[in-house]
Design a protein that fits this description.
Blueprint: H1 6-9, E1 13-14, H2 15-18, H3 41-58, E2 65-66, H4 68-85, E3 98-104, E4 107-108, E5 114-115, H5 121-129, E6 135-136, E7 141-142, H6 149-154, E8 161-168, E9 176-183
Parallel strand pairs: 1-3, 2-8
Antiparallel strand pairs: 3-9, 4-5, 6-7, 8-9
Length: about 190
């Protein structure tokens, strides 16, 4: 089992709390192309890799590549979360893989109705990357009471591949969940990401 640092991986990111946040010191990479609502899997792969690599470039680590195998694993788990937990975020515990989860609520209106709140791969990756503001490289730690493990996984220097999947959840709340798997995994205790 991968020895994840409890401070880096114990909390899960809720989209509502992250949207609109930027990187530390106002540093935000150039935006990647935004996939349209009718994007193909290839479009999603290209945008996901570009979004990851924009953040990785900022810290001087090598680019990552898309893995169809990791994407299939991530999609299967996103579908599992939809079918069994109504997209409640619970890590899969998949051996030998890093994993980031993202959940987005549907849009809620004053009359009690909801509508889908689709997210692009860039928005999902940028939400994880916003945790950079909570990470201190010198001490390799998160700020007290904050989460930064999603950020450290996406910039982990030894990670070379990513694959993601997503699922639309209950029609009653229009939420969605994203899963990205990483190989080799990051967030090893006592190791800095780069």
């Amino acid at each position: 089992m991968n020895p994840f640092h409890s401070n880096l991986c114990s909390a899960l990111t809720l989209a509502v709390s992250l949207m609109g946040c930027g990187g530390a010191s106002g540093t935000t990479p150039s935006p990647a192309p935004v996939a349209p609502a009718s994007a193909t899997n290839a479009d999603i792969a290209v945008e996901t890799v570009a979004a990851h690599n924009a953040w990785r470039t900022l810290v001087g680590v090598p680019n990552i590549a898309w893995s169809n195998t990791l994407a299939a694993t991530a999609q299967a788990y996103a579908d599992h979360l939809k079918a069994t937990n109504n997209c409640a975020m619970v890590h899969s515990g998949a051996a030998g893989l890093g994993e980031n989860l993202y959940w987005a609520s549907g849009l809620m209106y004053g009359n009690g109705t909801t509508a889908p709140n689709p997210k692009t791969p860039t928005q999902v990756v940028d939400a994880w990357a916003s945790e950079k503001a909570n990470y201190t490289y010198a001490s390799n730690s998160c700020a007290a009471g904050k989460v930064c493990g999603h950020y450290t996984q996406l910039v982990w220097a030894n990670t070379t591949q990513v694959g993601c999947g997503h699922a639309s959840c209950s029609a009653t709340d229009n939420s969605s969940v994203w899963v990205c798997n990483y190989a080799p995994p990051g967030n090893y205790v006592g190791q800095k990401p780069y």
